[in-house]
Amino acid sequence: MTYCLAISVNKGLVFASDSRTNAGVDYVTTYSKMHTFVWPGERICILLTAGNLATSQAVMNNIRTDLEKPDSKISLRKGKHLHEVAHYVGHLSQVEQRQHADALEKSGSGGAEASFILGGQIAGQSPEIYLIYPQGNYISASPETPYLQIGENKYGKPILDRIITPATSLEDAARCALVSLESTIRSNISVGPPLELAIHTSDVFKTPYHQKLTLNSPMYKSMQKQWNEGMHRALGRLPRFEWELKQAMADE
Predict the structure, then answer these.
(1) CB within 8 Å of 95: residues ≥ 6 apart
(2) How far apart are CA 55 and CA 38, in angstroms?
(3) If exposure means fewest CB atoms within 10 Å of the residue's CB, which of 25, 61, 91, 135 is most exposed?
(4) Residue 112 — pLDDT band, cuts 50, 70, 90?
(5) Burial environment of residue 154 by CB neighbours within 10 A (0 to 12, 13 to 18, 19 or more)
(6) Over 80: is that where the pLDDT of 204 sits?
(7) Which residue has the higher pLDDT, 246 or 131?
(8) What is the DSSP string of 39-87?
């Protein structure tokens, strides 16, 4: 399993992902789930992947192959709008799943489903993020819910719901994304490091800020420590129960 998320705020986009694809007792594998494509001054596309690794890798291979074909009718670079690119990725995923569904079902190896988050910006348009379902259809983020998640999303969702709004700064959105990932890692063994973080500033069409973090990275360790201490302080400041107040007055 895995956990990936994208956040859309007024100033741009934030992407974050883990790298774990398998977490058995004695067998752990990692692969990057973040794929960045940049055409300076023209467009930027970032894809996050979750689900069947063979399907997602095949989709990424087909995407790269189509980019090399000058006669391709559609590709990451040729879609006039980002939703057209989302439709294209969904179609590629559906083709791959159909090719291998029967064999996987007969072998009992599980499903071929994969999910994607596509985000980026085309020159002259606003930044956008899309969640592409295994069925090939997709949705976009909204001002009410300006983030999208794939994979093990429930553990990292509370901080996003409480903090993220369109007015959130890119830097705070990035910190929330890392805390969301850290919370998921703490609760679920199927999500693990290294973590990847990318930040795209609106109308800046160059390679986005990118950082890879391990559990021993100074920034990750400091963030984890301060977040834990902050939650303990917040808990200690919550209102006291009535019997606690009476006991405190009696002790005085």
Answers:
(1) none
(2) 23
(3) 25
(4) confident
(5) exposed
(6) yes
(7) 131
(8) ETTTEEEEEEEEE-HHHHHHHHHHHHHHHH-TT-SS-TTT-SSHHHHHH
Q: Is the pTM of this model over 0.85?
A: yes
Give the span between the Cα atoms of 207 and 200, in whole angstroms.
Answer: 8
Other C-beta atoms within 10 Å of 155: how many? 18
Architecture of the CATH domain 3-214 = 4-Layer Sandwich (3.60)
Distance CA 186, CA 193 (A): 11
Q: From the CB of residue 36, how many other CB atoms can be counted at a distance below 10 Å?
A: 16
Residue type, position 217, single letter = S
What are the DSSP calls for the chain, one per residue? --EEEEEEETTEEEEEE--EEEE-SS-EEE---EEEEEETTTEEEEEEEEE-HHHHHHHHHHHHHHHH-TT-SS-TTT-SSHHHHHHHHHHHHHHHHHHHHHHHHHHT-----EEEEEEEEETTS--EEEEE-TTS-EEE--SSS-EEEEES-TTTHHHHHHH--TTS-HHHHHHHHHHHHHHHHHH-TT--SPEEEEEEETT--SPPEEEEE-TT-HHHHHHHHHHHHHHHHHHHTSPPPHHHHHHHHHH-
User: Which part of the chain is CATH 3.60.20.10?
Assistant: 3-214
Per the listing, tokens 């998921």 go with: 184
